[in-house]
Amino acid sequence: EQDPQEVKKGHELWTVGMRPDQLYTLRSDWAYSYHCLGENTIRVLDIFIPGDLMGIRDATLPHHYTTAAMLTDGIICPFPTGRIKDIFETHPNLAMGIHASAARQQAVITDRLINVLSNDARCRIAHFILEIYYRIKRVHGDLGSGRWPHRACTIKLRRMGLGKPPVPRSAGYR
Asked: Is the Cα dihedral 152, 153, 154, 157 positive or negative?
């Protein structure tokens, strides 16, 4: 986290096909990764919250299989994937943290896949909200007030999590 950078909502961290030259630590706010299925259809694969290591899944692959963008204005800390070998050799505790982050992300993706294949939309939304809640709680501690530390979990985000297009403002909530 030596070179923090402020980035705007919508800023793309990487796109499909790019060589994974950078990993990112999300210092503040929210980001997400997604896959485009068509002209106006995307599937959100991951929501990143402060403290998450972004890009680790693709770090050893020839190119990214997803696109990642900022969901809100925030601060990221990029570092070159070429430093991973050095980190693993000289900083074993940090190496375990990187490994744990990758394992946790894989477990979340597996859990989501099982959830999507075996539940209706209402259960998927509830599962998604609980997943984000417990991830935030892990970083921010007790959330006894019941309030989210950020307002990024909007109707649009929830619909994206279900793989549905955003609701136009004029259509309202049906």
From this structure: positive
* DSSP-H helix ranges across the chain: 84-90, 92-118, 121-140, 155-161
Half-sphere exposure of 172 (CA within 13 A, CB side): 1
**CB-CB contact of 155 with 167 (8 Å):** yes
Mean of the pLDDT values across residues 151-163?
56
98 φ/ψ sector (left φ>0, alpha ψ -120 to 50, else beta): alpha
CB atoms within 10 A of CB 45: 19
* Per-residue pLDDT reduced to its tens digit, 86-120: 877 888 787 777 777 777 777 776 776 776 677 77
3 state SS of 173: coil
Q: Tell which residue, 42, 7, 51, 27, has the closest CA to residue 141.
A: 51
CA separation for the pair 50, 43 (Å, rounded):
21
Under the banding of pLDDT at 50, 70 and 90, the label for residue 174 is: very low
What dihedral angle (degrees, nearest 10) is formed by the CA atoms of 163, 168, 172, 174?
A: -40
pTM, full prediction: 0.66
